[in-house]
Protein 1
Amino acid sequence: MDLNERKLRILQAIIHDFIITGEPIGSRTLSKKFDMGISPATIRNEMADLEEMGFLTHPHTSAGRIPSDKGYRLYVNHLMQKYELPEKEKQIIASKLTSDFNELEQTIEKAAGLLSEITNLTSFALTPQQDEDVLKYINILPVDERTVVLMIVAESGKVSNTALRISVPYSEENLAILSKTLTYNYRGKTISQVLTSDIIKNFETDIEAMSRLAENIMPNFMKTLENMLNVDLYMAGQTNIFSIPEFNDIDKAKMFLEMLSKKDDLTRTLVNRDDGVIITIGDENSEEILPDCSLITATYHIDGKLVGKIGVIGPTRMKYDEITSVVEFVTEKLNSTFKLPEGKE
Amino acid sequence: MDLNERKLRILQAIIHDFIITGEPIGSRTLSKKFDMGISPATIRNEMADLEEMGFLTHPHTSAGRIPSDKGYRLYVNHLMQKYELPEKEKQIIASKLTSDFNELEQTIEKAAGLLSEITNLTSFALTPQQDEDVLKYINILPVDERTVVLMIVAESGKVSNTALRISVPYSEENLAILSKTLTYNYRGKTISQVLTSDIIKNFETDIEAMSRLAENIMPNFMKTLENMLNVDLYMAGQTNIFSIPEFNDIDKAKMFLEMLSKKDDLTRTLVNRDDGVIITIGDENSEEILPDCSLITATYHIDGKLVGKIGVIGPTRMKYDEITSVVEFVTEKLNSTFKLPEGKE
DNA sequence: AGTTAGCACTCACGGATAACGAGTGCTAAC
DNA sequence: GTTAGCACTCGTTATCCGTGAGTGCTAACT
C-alpha cells in the first residue's frame, strides 16, 4: 500500500480542516468541503488506508478522522507550504522589538510576550547560556564596615553581583588586593573552567587578614559565578490555554499549567534542543511535555556567538505553517537587534 | 433583632463546617453534627434571622446556608480563636527558612514557596520597596572599548547594574571622574529624590569629552535607578487553585489565573495594603481581586525598617485561623532572619 | 480493477422526564 | 419560646430516546 498523490491530498485536506475546526472530519463532509472530484466512498477507502498506515486515527467508531502525531509529522515535513507573514504583521513585530543592545533581557522578555500575543499560545524564551563566556574582571567594593559588593564582569558584558556581609573587618586596600588577585587568576577563563578549578576551593594567601577575608568571600564568589551560568526562563500567555477547545477541560488545563510551572524541567528540555527552527510533535517530545502538545523553538544569536532559545508550546493541533513563520521572523529580528553594528569583538 | 449568644454559636458552627466541607449546610444536618441542644426548627429560625442580618446566604431556595462575606468578617473579628501552629510545623518552617543575610531575594522567594506549600493556596511575596533607600555611590567601570558597566550601590547594600554600549571612545580617567562627580552629587539622597531632581536631566560639564560621555550614560543611569525602585513579585502555587472545589470550573479557574497574571495590578494592590497582618475578604478587596477571594498579607521588616509584603490568596472559604498563623509565623521568621545580628546601621 | 451507491450499524450528544433528597418556611401544638 | 409536622422547592442524577454524522461492507457500475 503506497502513499500515492491522492492519499497525500486527502491527508492534507484532513489536517488542514482539523487544524482550523478542531473537529474530526468524515468522508462525506470532506468531499463536500473540498470538492476533490471523488466520492465519499472512495475517500473512505483512502482514509481507512491512511489510518492503517498510522497517519490518522478516530476518537471513536462513529466519529470522523483526525491526524495522528505521525500524520502531523508528514504534514510538517512534506505537505505544509511556507507561510509568508503579511507585511503588516512583520512591521508590527519589527516596531515592537526595537531596543538598544543594553536591554538584552527586557528585549528577550518582550519577544516572548509578542510571540504569545500573535500566536495565542504559550511562549517562552531562554536567556543565552553563558558557558563559554569568559571572565573579564572581578571587583570587590566596600559598602559599609560589614558589607561589600562582589562584582563579576564577563567579556560579553554580562555582570553579576552580590552584596555580602562579612564577619571580619577589612581594609579597602585588602579588598583591592583580593580583587586584583582574583582577576589575575581567573581573567580569560570561562566560568565553568573557574568553577571546576581547584584553586577556587582552596584559595590561599600568606597574609593572615587577607585569608580571613577570602574565607568570607570565596563561597559567595562561587555562588555568584553559578548565578551567571544560570539561564533565565521567561514565559508569556500561560492562560491562553483556556481558549483552546481541546484543553477546555479542567484536568487538561491543570496538567498543562502544572507542566509549565515546573520551570526546571522545562528549561532543561529547552536547553537540550537542537539549534535552528525545530518542531517536535506530541509524543516526539520528552516526557516532561504533555502528550498532545507540540513545541516550536528557534535559536537566536547574540553578536553571532551566544545562543538563546525562544519558542512556543501549544496543542498538537496548531497552525504549524503560520506559527513557524512567526517564530522564525521574531528570531530573525532578535538576531539583528543583537548584532553589533560594527567590527567584531 | 439582636445578635445573641446562640446566634453567634450557630454562625460559628456554620462557618466552621462550611470552611471544612465547602457544602452549604442545613438546619437538620447542623443540629446532628454539632449537637447544640436545640431542634432543627429552632436553628432554622435563627438561621433565617442571621440571613436577614446579612451574615448568611443560600445559593438557592432548597439549599443549606453558607456564610456571606460579612459573616466571614464577623467570624474573623470575633469568633475565630487563635490557632497555635504545631511545634513540628514551626520547626519545618524555621529549618527551611534559614539563610544568610546576603540571600535576601532567594529567601523571600523561598518563603513564598513555603507558604504555598503549607497552605495549599497561592502565595506571593514582594521584595522591599526601596523608596527610602539612599544612594551610597555610583561607579562606572570599563569593560571594553565600547562597553562600560554602570553600577549603583545603595545604603541598604542593594546593587543595581547595567552593561551599556556607548558610542564614543572614553578614557578610564574620564569614567573615574564621572563616577566621582555622580557620587558626589547624589550620595545621601534617596532614589526617588534623585529621579525627580532636575540635575539629572541636564547633567553638564565643561569638558567636551566628558559631556559626550555623560550623554551616553545618563539615560541609562536613570533607567538603572528606576530598576532599583521596582519591587519584584514572587508567586508560588498558582495551580493549587485546581484543588479547590469552588474553582473546579473552567471559567473560575481561568479568571483566577488571569488575575494572577496581571502582575502589575497585583503588585499595586499589595503595595497599597496596610502594615501588619491584614485579612480582606471577598468584596472588601479592590476590583482587581476576584469577588470570592480573600487575601491575607503581612509585612516583614529588614533590619527593623519597614518594608516588604508576603501573603496568600485563596477562596473566601479558607481556614482563616490556621492560615493567619502560618503567615504570621513565616513573617516572624523572616524578620529574625533579616535582623542584623548586632548594632545598628 | 477501480469507483461508487446503498445499507446496516455505531455511538456521542442533547432534550425530556422522573425519582430523589436535602433543604426551606409556615402553622399549630407543646 | 420551642418544636413537630407538612407541603413545597429545586438542584442532582439516572434513564430513555431520537438524531445525525460517521463507519465498513457489499454489490453494482464504468
Note: The mean pLDDT of chain B is 90.
Protein 2
Amino acid sequence: MSLKYSKQRQAIWDFLKDKDTHPTADDVYLHVRQEYPNISLGTVYRNLILLRDLGQLSTVDIGDGTLRYDPCVEEHDHFVCTKCGTVLDIRTDPCEHTKMIRNTEGIFPGVVTGCRVLYSGICPSCAQNSTDD
Amino acid sequence: MSLKYSKQRQAIWDFLKDKDTHPTADDVYLHVRQEYPNISLGTVYRNLILLRDLGQLSTVDIGDGTLRYDPCVEEHDHFVCTKCGTVLDIRTDPCEHTKMIRNTEGIFPGVVTGCRVLYSGICPSCAQNSTDD
DNA sequence: AATGATATCAGTAATCGTTACTGATTTTTG
DNA sequence: CAAAAATCAGTAACGATTACTGATATCATT
C-alpha cells in the first residue's frame, strides 16, 4: 500500500496500528525514538498528518489541547475519564448517529452531515479502585 | 453578585452575556479594547477563566485549536459549519442526553456522567447562499 | 479621608502543541 | 549509475494560552 518506503513512517504506523489507547503525537515520538533514536518530532507530526490525510488513521480531540491519534477510522464515539484522563472507545449502534442527525435536522434549518459524541465519567479502572478503599 | 469591581471584567461580561455567536478570547479582546484601549489580552483570558470557574459561562471546543466562550451554562449541543466555521447552538430535547448516557452505560462498564455532542454540516446561511447560484 | 490588605491590572515573557522551513540524505525511476 | 523525487533530522516559527512582574485600584477599618 501507500507505505512504500521510509522506515520511520512504518515504525510510526506499526506502533499505532493495534493501539486503542489514543496516543498523542508525543507518545508516538517517545516510543518510536526507542527504535530510531534520532527521529524528529517534526517527522512524527508530518507522518501522522499524512496518514490521516490518506484516511489511514483518525484524530480525536477531547478538548485538553492535545490531539490523540486513533488507528480506527470507522465512526465511533469516545469516553474520557475525568479522573485519570484515559480515552476509551464507545461503539453504540451505528444507526444511533443517523437518528441523532435526522432528529437534529428536524429542529435546525441547516444541513447536518456528521456528529461526534464525547462521553465523560469514571472509567472502569478508576471505578474499581475507588470501591477498593 | 460576584462582579463587585473591575470595569474590565464587567465589560468582558457585558460583551459576552447576550451573545450566541461563541466568540473566541481574541474576539472578546478586540471588542473590549474599543472601550478600554489598553486592556491586556492576559486580562481577558484571566477573567474568562475566572468567570468559567464561577460557573457564569461555559467553554466550547470545536476542535479548531481555539476555545469559544458561551454565556449559556445550561447543557446544550453545538453545530459547526464546515464552510464558514460558524458555531450555532443546538437544543434537542434535554432527556436525549439522559437516554444516550443510559444507553451507553448499558454497553460500557464505567460510570457515565456527561456527554457533549458536536454536529457538523452546512449552516442555514451557507446553505442559502449555495442555492443562489 | 488615611491605612493596610487584597484584587486586579497592563505588559511581557514563557509554555505548549503544532507547523513550516532548511539543506542533507535516501529512495525510486530510467 | 545518474537525475528526480520523496523523506529525513534539526530547528525555527507560530498561535493560543498561561505565568510572572511590579504598579494601580478597590475594599474594610478606623
Note: Residues 5-6, 8-9, 38-43, 46-47, 65 of chain A lie near DNA strand D (CB under 10 Å from a C1').
